[in-house]
Write a structure and sequence with these properties.
The protein has 12 helices and 6 strands. The chain is of the alpha/beta class. Helix 8 packs across helix 10, helix 8 packs across helix 11 and helix 9 packs across helix 10.
């Protein structure tokens, strides 16, 4: 299979070079370009990356604005936001705008490569410390658990199984393996889940899974 195409967007040349060396070291990943925020949309159109690593804070065009532009494209790439701070106030905004993940810039090289692979496979990624921020702040600060449970009640039993595994951050392939389903079937279930929940992407669905208690319940064997 051809390598996964990756675009790196950051205002600092040294950061772009460092990330490019790490990602490009993997034989199944190819860094097709790098740029600052102002050129991100143009290069995404020209180079058709499957994954974009996007800095949140850039002087020419901020990451949230770039994210919204990329998500509006006919075939948008999976976008993971890059930040220096695990308490970045943009986390919630980025996830609501359609980011498929949030990574710290000091993420270990092997974890960064793994994250790109997960994104390319349709999964979502959150650095562990960012995940704690999301669950304790963004998640609990949203609608009450009863409202999340009510939304989850719209789903079929199999869709609840898929949603619980989304909440664990699994990719489509991993969910398929866990539930003994085809990846195409998993994609169909996820599309139905997003539509029923009114979620913009799988990260938002994963957040709801945590709020509804699905992830905790499944791990406890309930």
């Amino acid at each position: 299979m051809p390598p996964t195409r990756v675009l790196i967007v950051d205002d600092e040349v040294l950061v772009r070079s460092g990330l490019g060396l790490i990602v490009g070291s993997a034989p199944d990943l190819e860094v097709v370009g790098d740029c600052s925020g102002g050129r991100a949309e143009q290069l995404t159109r020209e180079l058709a990356p499957q994954v974009v690593l996007l800095d949140v804070r850039m002087p020419d065009l901020d990451g949230i604005s770039v994210l919204r532009r990329l998500r509006a494209l006919p075939e948008p790439p999976a976008v993971a936001m890059l930040t220096t701070f695990d308490t970045d106030e943009h986390i919630g905004t980025a996830l609501r705008a359609g980011a498929a993940g949030f990574l710290l810039k000091d993420t270990a090289p092997d974890q960064l490569v793994h994250a790109v692979r997960v994104l390319a496979a349709g999964g979502s990624v959150l650095s562990p410390s960012v995940a704690r921020t999301v669950i304790s702040g963004y998640v609990e600060g949203g609608a009450p658990d009863t409202a999340a449970a009510s939304l989850a009640g719209r789903l079929t039993g199999r869709e609840l199984d898929v949603l619980a595994l989304l909440g664990e951050g699994l990719s489509n392939a991993e969910i398929a393996d866990r539930l003994f389903l085809g990846t195409g079937t998993v994609k169909d279930h996820i599309s139905a889940i997003l539509a029923k929940l009114g979620a913009a992407n799988r990260v938002q669905a994963a957040v709801l899974a945590h709020r509804a208690g699905l992830v905790r319940d499944r791990r406890d064997g309930a």
